[in-house]
Amino acid sequence: MTGLVLREDDNGITTLTMNRPDAMNALSIALRAELAAAIRAADADPSVKVIILTGAGTRAFTAGLDLKELGGTPGALGAANPKSAENDPVLSMEACRKPIIGAVNGVAITGGFEVALACDVLIAAANARFADTHARVGILPGWGLSQKLSRAVGVMRAKELSLTGNFLDAETAAAWGLVNRVVPADELLPTARKLAADMASIPADTLADYKKLIDDGFALAGGEARALEGDTTSKRNAAVKPEEIEARRAGIQSRGRTQ
After folding, report:
1. Rounded-to-integer distance, Cα 174 and Cα 99, Å
2. With b meaning 16 or more CB within 10 Å and e meaning fewer, what string describes 12-32?
3. Residues 67 and 188 occupy one common structural domain
4. Which own/partner pairs from 119-122 qualify as long-range (CB within 8 Å, at least 24 positions apart)?
5. Among 86-90, 183-187, 237-241, the range of highest mean pLDDT
6. Residue range(s) defining the domain that contains residue 102
7. Contact, 55 vs 106, CB < 8 A?
8. Which residues contact 84 (CB under 8 A, 6 or more apart)?
9. Helix (H) or strand (E) holding 60
């Protein structure tokens, strides 16, 4: 590690911070490789149950691919779309078995927007903004934005964003269903950590299995997805012992009284 991605561990929650604040956390080749490695390391670490991803500073989650590097480095654009997860943060995020909460602390632009869309949950600071400027740069997305965005906000809204390159503010992003909630900037990480702690209170295997079931089903048509749930659930739930459910019942009832 070279310090381009900072890692902080606390009670089963790992916070990864993209650390190029002077460059708006732009995704250089080195940062992409380090972020991909950090995601894979957290995924492989049995002590980690939930990952929070954010950017250093207050201006940017990440401004996307480093355009200065793209313009001055032969082959840099092709390197942005490798075929394996080794140097690809989005492929590493998509393969991650553990929930990833994106704490969007500023702009998420183009490739940065794609990184945000690879998270499982998005919490946005009030100053967060999103933009897909691929078309304005003269390139097309390669990390799934052309398909994920339309599924998140609807095809017409996705076309408006992608075919104009215009910015989307945090409140509108929440209204459109792109982010889960918007909070003041100073409450961003505390909110993400509280949500992560709630997730981390779930047994690790259940957390991973449920995330996989949602993701796998979302990629299928409705009937196939329902069949997948039935098959997966019947096999997995048959292995759960009644005494395990009873042991957890009191905790569930307690949460219902306090929330």
Report:
1. 20
2. bbbbbbbbbeebbbbbbbebb
3. yes
4. 119/53, 119/93, 120/211, 121/180, 121/195, 122/178, 122/179, 122/180
5. 183-187
6. 5-200
7. yes
8. 91
9. strand 60-62
Q: Both 247 and 167 in a single domain?
A: no
Structure token pair of residue 159: 């076309």
Q: Are residues 148 and 246 in the same domain?
A: no
- Whole-angstrom distance, CA of residue 59 vs CA of residue 156: 29
The whole model's pTM is what?
A: 0.91
| pLDDT tens digits, one per residue of 106-148 | 999 999 999 999 999 999 999 999 999 999 989 899 999 999 9
Are 64 and 113 in contact, with CB atoms under 8 Å apart? yes
pLDDT of 196 above 60: yes
Neighbouring-strand partners of residue 109: 131
**How confident is the model over 43-86, as pLDDT tens digits?**
999 999 999 999 999 999 999 998 888 765 555 555 556 566 67
What one-letter code names the amino acid at 46?
P
Spatial contact of 114 and 145, defined as CB atoms under 8 Å apart: yes
Q: Are residues 174 and 225 in the same domain?
A: no
CA distance 99 to 209: 11
